[in-house]
Amino acid sequence: MNPPHTLPARRDRHDHDRLRRRDILHVIALGGAAGLSACGGGSHGGVGIGPGIGAGPGESPAAPGAQPSAAPIAPVAAGSTSPQDDGGEIKVSVIDRRIKVSNSPEVSLQVRDWQPPRSSGPVFVFLPGLGANARSFDGLASGLAPKSRVIAVSRRGYGLSDKPLPEKTATQYYDVDTLVADLKAVLDALGVQRAVLGGHSIAGNELTRFAGLYPDRTQGLIYLDTTFDNTANPDIGGEEPPANPLLLNEPEPKPEDGRSLQAAIAFFRRNSKTWGPVHEANLRDSLDIHADGSVSPNTPSEVNDAMETASRSFSPDYKAVRAPSLVTTALPASHRDMFPWLELPLDAKTEKDATDYLRIIRQVRIADSNQLVAALDTPNRLTLDNASHGDFFMEREAEVLRAIKFMKWA
Question: Which domains, and CATH codes, for the chain?
Fold first, then answer.
């Protein structure tokens, strides 16, 4: 347990039985930026972070069809601009909301809602990976918003959403069916009858389950480097990944890294492959900031453990999916894609171990992606080389947007 008001130490990754979660998928979302909330520990109390980067004054109207439970909170960047395909700009309203999805326990979710003046495309709804929140989709949403309404949701337990603690079972309140019920409640509250759902990493479970339960409400699916089945062990061809501690142990935050928001930002910037406004906005909404200026994760470790356990206990039923699907895969190709904390030049042993590790990971990810494409029976896939699982849709935003826009959503 970490002292209050300090950043938690990251969990080590020596346990090869957890290769699917920790090494192959690198599921601490954003390659470290969201690891503050994904790794748990620290103090849960304190003053919540505000809207984050891009906050602006003024009130924004509620979305058409929104119910009382969808009352907007702290409207963000009302009247902001997004690029159009022709190079011009269009005003897009962005509204931050809290939407109540459960009465027992009472749970409300953080929802960001981009609304163009005129919508000619489908409604897009995005769900983040483990540890991340709605702010991780600020970039993609801005690229789609000139023609489509875009909604990003922080699932329960993360960001500015409520975080009930499990009581009766290890995964209580965080099983996939509960998360799917939350998603349906958000769509109902916002009056969205049909949508294209996009999900990163563990969110693939929610996409598949929702599409099977509610085919009439699923216009399409965007799998953002998700896993075919988290319950299955990866086939590593009998080859053991190198157990080099320099690869397995990410740098641990020190007490001084949690003494201020800027110190926390500096730590994760140093140890991430890329960094930009979207990373920082996601990080801000993953933290509590205290009276003395120190910061700590706003997700309790019990919640993150419950979410992780529930996600790896769910086996998706792809036969029930009828919607057109796009499968995107991020393939690491360099040390920076998986081990951004390594200082160059590497010694000969670490160089070899890192190269071997990357080769194994790539083989497994390609095989896993092929399984997903076959199960969905889709010809639509985007494979991005030299990409990091955690934030490829930020770093390679333009390519991901082109693939999404190329799709003919039925």
Answer: 16-406 (3.40.50.1820)
